[in-house]
Amino acid sequence: MEQIKAPGILAGNIGEPIKLEKVEPLIGFSSAYAAKGDMCQLWTKHGFTSDQDVFHQIAKSFISTLEHYTQREGKFVKLSNCEMLLFIIHGDLSAEIWNDKAAVASRIIMKKQIQPGMVVFEKEVADILDVHFPLVEFKQDDKVICLFREGWRFGLYFDLNRDDDFSVEDMNKNLGVLHRAVKYKNIYDSMFDPDTLSFIIARGWFPFAELINDGFDILQYQEKNDEVFDKSASHLISLFDKDRMDSIRSRWNSKIYLNEKMPILDAAFSSYYYGNYIAAIKIILTEIEGVLQSFYIKANLKKGSSSALTDFAKDTAIRKLQSKNTLLFPEEFLLYLKQNTYCSFDLMTGTASANSRHSVGHGAAAAKTYTKEKAIQAILTFDQIVFYL
Asked: How many CA atoms lie within 13 A of 240 on its CB side?
């Protein structure tokens, strides 16, 4: 029988779940050893990745329990090789095992406009907001455990819902957090290691949205050595040809709030194409403040200081994404803005650089610092703010 699809859904579930008539009620996973008669602390709602030791204990126990359930009802299925394993216990203790059979979807932030049915390439994805099962029915008294694989890593989420208030939205969001943590572990490691983050930011770089899945790996795997890092940065810079810059420009041009700015921004792109990095940098860095200021005034009915504007960019991103822990890294980007775009300078030392809006705006940056690298970094900084707004 042809599967009936929900409106707007182009795909369906691959098959039907394994249905179990009755299972024992699961109330949680033990968080520590407890002898008979001792008090035991349970996890009833949590998420783990395979980089955490406890994950392997819980996953092994979970798979063993499921296989016991299936064998007891004469259904012999090996579940340890599943890519996406979803287990649902209903209020009447009947259960479903979706072993790679449920359709899986994600809400993502794209780097470019797409039409329904278009092929989407990984390099076009800037962020993953959630993971969900659009054609699986959930009820308020359900209990859910989900084990998934991404490459050589795994994620595990469970909500054993003691209060009959299961939230599908909450599960979707948490699965998104886990998926990002598993798939992009190396980027998160770079961001959450203070020494690595400081090293990258000090050289004007960041995991800008444009570089997610498309370039940041060139930088993140390099040792903290200027010579080695500079060679990697040079390779990354070489990837920013006219087609890539045109793609960034197209993204900006699609934003209604930038309509009046596009003639100015086009002058920056034109300058960049002709190798006039001085003009490109001066335009972009001043327009960063202009765009932030216009949004700030609309929200607060007053002009904002530099510090207020950078905080505003961070807070706006967190509200939009409903999370601090996304691939757009709003809190870490605040640090980047303060140490680069809005860093102070000392006229007496002669060290002012073209990475700072202040040194550029006051004419303090030396001509030799207006490089192609600094121009790309300025454009990527503006682009990051476009994703936030």
From this structure: 24
